[in-house]
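Subject: for your reference before the review

Hello V.,

The reviewers asked for a structural picture of the protein, and I figured it would be easier to keep everything in one thread rather than splitting it across files. Below is the amino acid sequence we used in the manuscript, unchanged from the supplementary table.
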Amino acid sequence: MSVMEKLIITAAVCGAEITRKQTPYIPLTPEEISDEACAAREAGASIVHIHVRDENGKPTQDVKIFKRTLDLIRKKCPDVIIQVSTGGAVGMSADERLQSIYAEAEMATLDVGTTNFGNDIFVNDMPLIRHFAKKMNEVHIMPEFECFEIGHIYNALRVVKEGLVKGHLHFDFVLGVPGACPADVRNLIRMVDSIPSNATWTVSGIGKHEFEMAAQAIAMGGNVRVGLEDNIYLSKGVLAKSNADLVEKVVRISKEIGREIATPRETRKLLEIKD
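And here is what came back from the structure prediction:
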């Protein structure tokens, strides 16, 4: 990508781990999640990354809750690109995690490697990766490769070579997860250099690394994911009151160095997603 391509912003709205004890601003119900997603769209996000919660605020991959949430999003902001999580939460079965792809979203995350995740292990072995890729292909949903380590890139390229993923390739480099690859510009550069030249990429800096990694990606011509899933602070000690707050900060950073923000329609063209 040219460094002056328009910036694609993804808003990761709620995730699976953040609780109301950590921040009162995390959305939990379908109505709250859809409101946050559309406010993030209004602020400049063209993709919204969606997890859902059950009636007790616990992470779930229940397809009925996903469908309810996606219907609300499409009613309120019909042009935004919806990306569902197949990561779910640590400890979920593969079948449980896959439920979200049947909610008729345009994109889904495809985790392409096992990684340490804090004190837990997030398991994504090659048979699981192949299985998820096949199922996504069957329902015509575009995968975004979630890479927590550089080796995960080569797992992704392996399933591409095997014909399990076709079309445009899009990567998300998730950096700064405790126990996984540190959020460091040298690691980011190495990962970017390891993907095909015609692929697109996004970076997700976790916690305090969110805006540092965002600024690096903007300058390098990549794309950015922010949101309360990854980071609950707007600045040191200051809670973000919404996902829109985080998106708006990225928009300001990007425009300061001359990069405009991609609309959902422009993002569809860049990622080769049909309208």
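For the response letter, the relevant points are probably these. The chain has one domain: 9-271. The chain has a mean pLDDT of 96.

Happy to draft the paragraph if you're swamped.

O.
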